[in-house]
Inverse folding.
């Protein structure tokens, strides 16, 4: 079966059958996320991902194989379409676990990955609107109604710009995670992202960090995270879920327990960064965990409010299921 973030559904619909007919779980998980890595309309992963504050798309990704208990990761990778495949090359073709930045790019190129411009025209436009709207104290101006751009805006263009501006209201931390469990009990997972929009160049999120954005163990299960990477890193969220599975907890209980831990940690962090929790002590950021046990039980849990995750199993095939929120 497959469990992952909501944006994994199209990939699951395409590739679930290959898992059923015996493909390796790692192969299937990577094929699932590659659909979104190459989808320029998803502004949180791969091509079309929102860039860092300098306008450069820097990708993070990791893979982990429960059968061999091995993993590979890349961080701050530029100009390569499929970071999940490069992460797999790190795992399978080196004695390292993570390669970053220029070294990761050269490594990918030396394995035949082509150089690709990942900043799409729409992502560039959103980035420039962010720069222009960031502060009234700097020299960049939001185009007003009397500018050439403002005067020319047709109703369709105005609607398009309003759609782009939604990315300015809340920073994108979206990501794609997929965990896969084969009929023979082997488990594997991958997480891939363009990371936090407008991040400081060189910032590494949770997605490529083994134990934070993903973790699996052939003796216990698999888990992954999407949302605020810093919170997942500080809680070691994915390995924490898998360790609770190992101790006998059900996936739902394990995920909720880790989110309770994240909540307590956020309250302490709010001593120096007050915006992290609201007046009720509830975190103001998003974090979603996907948890898959070796017995096929699974859960998607959300720090705050409702949502959905993607799942594919023999009973219902690929579909969306409801996340269980910790805080309403
Ligand atoms: N979870 C993705 C990131 O924070 O980079």
């Amino acid at each position: 079966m497959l469990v992952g973030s909501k944006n994994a559904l199209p990939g699951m619909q395409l590739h679930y059958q290959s898992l059923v007919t015996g493909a390796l779980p790692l192969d299937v998980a990577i094929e699932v996320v590659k659909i979104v890595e190459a989808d320029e309309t998803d502004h949180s992963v791969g091509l079309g991902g929102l860039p860092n504050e300098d306008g450069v798309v820097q990708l993070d990704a990791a893979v982990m194989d429960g059968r061999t208990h091995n993993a590979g990761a890349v961080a701050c990778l530029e100009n390569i379409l499929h970071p999940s495949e490069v992460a797999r090359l790190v795992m399978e073709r080196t004695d390292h676990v993570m390669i970053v930045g220029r070294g990761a790019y050269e490594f990918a190129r030396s394995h035949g990955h082509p150089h690709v411009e990942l900043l799409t025209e729409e992502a560039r436009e959103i980035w420039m609107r962010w720069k222009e709207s960031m502060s009234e104290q700097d020299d960049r101006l939001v185009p007003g109604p009397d500018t050439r751009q403002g005067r020319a805006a047709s109703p369709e263009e105005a609607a398009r710009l309003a759609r782009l501006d939604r990315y300015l209201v809340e920073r994108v931390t979206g990501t794609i995670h997929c965990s896969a469990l084969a009929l023979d009990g082997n488990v594997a997972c991958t997480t891939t992202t363009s990371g936090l929009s407008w991040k400081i160049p060189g910032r590494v999120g949770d997605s490529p960090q083994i134990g934070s954005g993903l973790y699996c163990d052939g003796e216990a299960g698999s888990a992954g995270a999407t949302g605020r990477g810093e919170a997942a890193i500080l809680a070691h969220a994915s390995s924490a879920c898998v360790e609770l599975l190992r101790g006998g907890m059900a996936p739902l209980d394990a995920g909720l327990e880790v989110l309770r831990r994240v909540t307590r940690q956020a309250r302490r962090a709010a001593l120096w960064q007050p915006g992290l929790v609201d007046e009720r002590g509830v975190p103001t950021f998003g974090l979603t965990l996907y948890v898959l046990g070796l017995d096929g039980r699974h859960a998607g849990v959300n720090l705050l409010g409702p949502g959905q995750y993607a799942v594919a199993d023999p009973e219902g095939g690929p579909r969306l299921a409801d996340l269980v929120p910790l805080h309403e």
User: Anything to note?
Assistant: The chain has one domain: 2-116+171-327. The first strand starts at residue 2 and ends at 5. The two ends are 29 Å apart (CA to CA). The domain at 2-116+171-327 is CATH 3.60.20.30 (Glutamine Phosphoribosylpyrophosphate, subunit 1, domain 1).
